[in-house]
Amino acid sequence: MDKKDIDLLLASQRNEVTECLVYERLSRVEKDPENKKAFIALSREEATHAAVLQKFTNKVVNPYMWKVWMYYWTAKILGITFAIKKMELNEEIGLNFYSQFSAYPELLQIGHDESVHENRLIKMINEERLEYMGSVVLGLNDALVEFTGVLAGFTLALSNTPLIALTGGITGIAAALSMGSSEYLSTKSENTGRKSPMKASVYTSIAYLITVVALIFPYIIFDNVIIALLVMFLMAIIIIAAFNYYYSVARTECFKKRFLEMAFLSFSVAGISFLIGFLLKHFTGIET
User: For residues 51 and 193, what is the distance between their CA atoms, to the nearest angstrom?
Assistant: First the structure.
């Protein structure tokens, strides 16, 4: 092997050592026994890969401690599944990387393990918040589609930011409670035993309320209704992008497709509502 190949393997070796430490730390704090087993297995696998790579590099490397802490806290805040899949996506390893070392079966085996075995172990991890992802999607999607439309309609119909914020807040809270109740009844009627109706209701309501607060906020800080409307649309885009990025990583789905679909629905409804508000104001002659 030349120096370039050794440098590439050294980088991979350091990634393996880092991931080994991440999984080991997660196994120490994980309470679910099955998840703990999966983390221990993943940590041991990464340690084995690092040992194989060390035979080729003849060097002992230290982990990227900043990455260890970053992924650890990402797992604590955003969830274990998101952190692990993000970590695996960020490391440019696997069959494509190790295929260039086709003369070395040990390295090809590492690539195979990364692509097959570790993915199987990751799928074993059970995380409660992903069980309720459907409820979060329902709350966010309904709030974005419905509430961007409501605020767009209020913007032209009322033309008063404090009044829009007040009216929107009352409407949003009522809608969040209504959505939570509907999700409770829907989950209870499914009777699968996998999800708690109360938890599903809470996840839906909280997702809806967070979206409502974010979308109303521009109407609280800006006096100009058009500026408030534009900032509200920007907030909607940010929420759609952030959520769909999280969802696409956690569920291994296409970010672009989901983002464009939700954005199109939200802004289409908002555009129609804006037009309805304009027409109602024009034909009724009501001014505020």
Answer: 44
Q: Hey, what amino acid is at 68?
A: V
User: How do the domains of the chain map onto residue ranges?
Assistant: 3-126, 129-284
Q: Tell me, yes or no, if the pTM score tops 0.85.
A: no
Place of tokens 């993915």: 119
Show the tokens assigned to 209.
Answer: 């309320």
CA 46 to mean position of chain CA atoms: 25
Closest CA to 9 of 46, 47, 80, 57: 57
Blockwise average pLDDT, block size 10, the chain, 288 residues: 83 89 87 84 90 91 91 83 76 64 82 70 64 73 79 80 90 87 81 75 87 91 91 88 82 81 79 72 63
Query: Pick from 108, 139, 286, 118: which is nearest to 206 by CA?
Result: 139
Maximum C-alpha span of the chain: 82
The answer to whether residues 195 and 132 touch, using CB atoms and an 8 Å cutoff, is yes
The span from the CA of 239 to the CA of 148, in Å, is 12
The answer to whether 80 touches 130, Cβ cutoff 8 Å, is: no
Amino acid at 236: A
